[in-house]
Amino acid sequence: MLNPKQSDKLASIMLYSIAGFVILVLAALVGYILVQGVPHLSWHFLTSPSSAFTAGGGIGVQLFNSFYLLIITMIISFPIALGAGIYLHEYANQKNQFIRLTRTAIEILSSLPSVVVGLFGFLLFVVQFKLGFSILSGAIALTFFNLPLLTRSVEDSLRSIPDLQREAGAALGLSRWETVGHIILPAAVPSIVTGVVLSAGRVFGEAAALIYTAGQSAPALDFGDWNPFNTASPLNIMRPAETLAVHIWKVNSEGIMPDAAAVSAGASAVLIIAVLLFNFLARFLSSVLYKHLTATK
Amino acid sequence: MTANLQGSLNLTGSQPDRHIYQMDNDKHEIALYTKDLQVSYGNNVALKNADLSFERFKITSLIGASGSGKSTFLRSLNRMNDDVATVDGQIMYRGLDINSHDIDVYEMRKHIGMVFQRPNPFAKSISDNITFALKQHGLHDKAKLAEIVETSLKQAALWDEVKDDLKKSALSLSGGQQQRLVIARAIAMKPDILLLDEPASALDPISSAKIEDTLMELKKHYTIIIVTHNMQQASRISDYTAFFHTGEVVEYDLTRKIFTRPKVQLTIDYVNGNFG
């Protein structure tokens, strides 16, 4: 038998090794992708359009598409998730059967395979609603599995704020809406932003759901034309838009350009770097926002 | 103060099982009283038949063991139990039954403020903690707000410690300071009645003593009802004391009577610390 001190030590060693293993896997993966991809990166690669048959194509359009699709997805899904999260945690009667059903539905929605969501989006939005292969179709499909994740994280963020704060608001004669809007939400901002970042990472890297909704083609964009109603405008949400992740998939599965491997490696590195940058930026923003909202210096 | 015994339940010899001091409305100004107040959580009755009157500009202590119903009673007075419990009976305040359905609870809570056991300042600056609710209620005059910040912090005996950094986060204050800030926040609303649920139990003795001094000062302007586990505290600061036991008010009287000549055996046991 081990004495408590020894078993403590053993447990620590085991937990450290498990954590170390996870970090090692992550580091190896990220390291490999970066080592393979970074040498191919150049300003030309990042800004020029892709080429289907000849070497020297870039990922400029795909990179822009990924960010733009992410933003449109967030514009659609974040307000819904925020409202749903606030309702579920602050207003809903937790014992109500309907609320339990809603929670179960959200969980099921989050476990749907993304390719199924993609095909469903294809049939409903692309074909039935005649939205075509477009950023809008893609954003709606992404909203489908972004919503449960975001709603859950908003709800968890609200749950992490102690009830004492709600009681404090109520005891001062503030309505529930005032308390939630001005006291609970500002305090929950850092963890809500973390949730947004996590789901953004997932959306950014999503390919399967987009192949049949946002499409696999990236028509050249005219970056001088910012009228969202023009076909070549980057802001047009009705144009087909191959994203970075879809491009990686496509180049690997059916790319016939001579430098396919290099394009794929470079694009993968850009994808990883973008997600990392996005992470750090969001953390920075959330701390600035938190300080601004709560006057903590 | 002259004792008024005319309403006592039992004036003859043997030990009564209840003794509720009935206030004479002609001599004492009543700020609030309850009639037949009963609170239940599901099928579990936490408080029954509570008839208590609270005199204006006095401190009334509610004492009793954990689970005796004293906090439940206190939280029912400004309807903080609405979501979790069923509250039957009447709570009369200025001729209105504030336990009735058509009462605007948000408006009512501006008159009946509350301070909780654990300090709960908002994650805002010290001054915003005090002004936030006032602004929400429509007061935007900067000079007036600054004046309220100063007077309420002074009343809560916190002004001297924080006057130079009112823009600092309230979360950077110590526990005792936070609790006084919360009291300042409550009195900034200019309530009639201040309910305190064990406000000093999470604090060290020095902070606790400061809170007590603050309350003694506040009773000049406010009617105070305080739940406390600390018997010395109850006897030091309160004018009246109610002893709760298993969901009932067993004895209610002037504090000095409760602590020197209680009428009910249970009270005698409790205040002497011989509680089983």
Automatic annotation (TrEMBL), chain A:
Q: Supply the Pfam families for this chain.
A: BPD_transp_1
Give an example GO cellular component term for this record. Answer: plasma membrane
Q: Where the protein is mainly located, per its record?
A: membrane
Q: Write the protein's name.
A: Phosphate transport system permease protein PstA
Q: Which GO terms describe its molecular function?
A: phosphate transmembrane transporter activity
Q: Which InterPro entries match?
A: MetI-like, MetI-like_sf, Phosphate_PstA
Which organism is the protein's source? Weissella bombi
Q: Where is the ABC transmembrane type-1 domain?
A: 63-282
From TrEMBL, chain B:
Keywords, ordered alphabetically: ATP-binding, Cell membrane, Membrane, Nucleotide-binding, Phosphate transport, Translocase, Transport
Q: Where is the ABC transporter domain?
A: 32-271
Q: Give the coiled coil ranges.
A: none
Spell out the Pfam families in the cross-references. Answer: ABC_tran (PF00005)
Q: Does the keyword ATP-binding apply?
A: yes
What terms describe the molecular function in GO for this protein?
ATP binding; ATP hydrolysis activity; phosphate transmembrane transporter activity
Q: Does the record bear Translocase in its keywords? A: yes
GO cellular-component term (any): membrane
Could you name the domain of life of the organism this protein comes from?
Answer: Bacteria
List GO BP terms, alphabetically: phosphate ion transmembrane transport
Q: What SMART domains does the annotation carry?
A: AAA (SM00382)
InterPro entries for this protein: AAA+_ATPase, ABC_transporter-like_ATP-bd, ABC_transporter-like_CS, P-loop_NTPase, PstB-like
Q: What is this protein called?
A: Phosphate transport system ATP-binding protein
